[in-house]
């Protein structure tokens, strides 16, 4: 694996009405990795993704993507640099078809490879290909999650921010989503994953960070963290 750092987060602080949701968080995501952020509700995981993508203001700290200062770029320019955010709740356009949702994501691109990327999405998500003419608001929760990920891929993402991709899905669909995450990574997409299903997140990730009340309290390879008493007790149902 290429270990060149793609995303660097250094001493990140994010606040809401003077209350710090993220407090001095630092970590890196190397090219080709899946890195997961694990923690309870309110731990600051989604706030970190929002800060990286430009949806939330940063109180203090430094963010770089391939060495470029992200804090100088608005959200839409970060997308143009290859950063794609799949937020919790999917936020697809229900009054557009599956294919229209995907093509809309490529609207701002200036290359002529949209058709090639659309075929890639159909290959990764055969179910979406079957429903390409179907309205977004008629899809199941799992299909909407697939569409949200496919839409991010249409922007030619090199770093994919995934926020709670398994939330609200049946167990069988959760497993399918995680298989897709692994396949995406195998094709070269680097992924920063926020996920409450710690067991599955640790199965797919190369490295993990455990957050509590806006701070990193543990980090390391998934194998080590799975055996850590604090992680087992809090997230894996063991003592």
Structure description:
This protein is an alpha/beta fold and 239 residues long. The protein has a single domain (5-235), classed as Rossmann fold. It contains ten helices and ten strands. The strands form two sheets. The chain has a six-stranded mixed beta sheet with strand order 6-7-8-3-9-10, sandwiched between helices. A four-stranded antiparallel beta sheet has the order 2-1-4-5, covered by helices on one side. The two termini are 34 Å apart. The mean pLDDT is 90.
SSE arrangement:
Layout: E1 5-16, E2 19-30, E3 34-38, H1 45-53, E4 60-65, E5 68-69, H2 75-80, E6 83-86, H3 98-105, H4 114-124, H5 126-130, H6 141-153, E7 159-163, H7 171-186, E8 190-194, H8 198-204, E9 207-212, E10 215-220, H9 222-226, H10 229-235
Parallel strand pairs: 3-8, 3-9, 6-7, 7-8
Antiparallel strand pairs: 1-2, 1-4, 4-5, 9-10
């Amino acid at each position: 694996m290429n270990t060149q750092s793609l995303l660097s987060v250094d001493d990140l602080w994010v606040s809401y009405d003077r209350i710090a949701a993220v407090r001095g968080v630092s970590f890196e995501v190397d090219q080709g990795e899946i890195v997961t952020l694990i923690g309870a509700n309110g731990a600051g995981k989604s706030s970190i993704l929002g800060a990286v993508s430009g949806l939330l203001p940063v109180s203090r700290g430094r963010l770089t993507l391939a060495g470029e200062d992200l804090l100088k770029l608005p959200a839409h320019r970060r997308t143009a640099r290859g950063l794609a955010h799949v937020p919790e709740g999917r936020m697809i356009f229900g009054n557009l078809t599956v294919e229209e949702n995907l093509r809309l994501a490529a609207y701002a691109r200036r290359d002529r490879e949209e058709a090639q990327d659309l075929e890639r999405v159909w290959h990764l998500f055969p179910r979406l290909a079957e429903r390409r003419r179907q309205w977004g608001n008629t899809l199941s929760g799992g299909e909407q999650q697939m569409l949200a990920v496919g839409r991010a891929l249409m922007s030619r993402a090199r770093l994919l921010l995934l926020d709670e991709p398994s939330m609200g899905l049946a167990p069988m669909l959760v497993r399918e989503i995680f298989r897709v995450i692994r396949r995406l990574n195998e094709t070269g997409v680097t992924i920063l994953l926020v996920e409450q299903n710690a067991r599955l997140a640790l199965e797919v990730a190369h490295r993990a960070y455990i957050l509590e009340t806006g701070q990193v309290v543990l980090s390391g390879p998934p194998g080590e963290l799975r055996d850590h008493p604090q992680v087992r007790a809090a997230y894996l149902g063991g003592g």
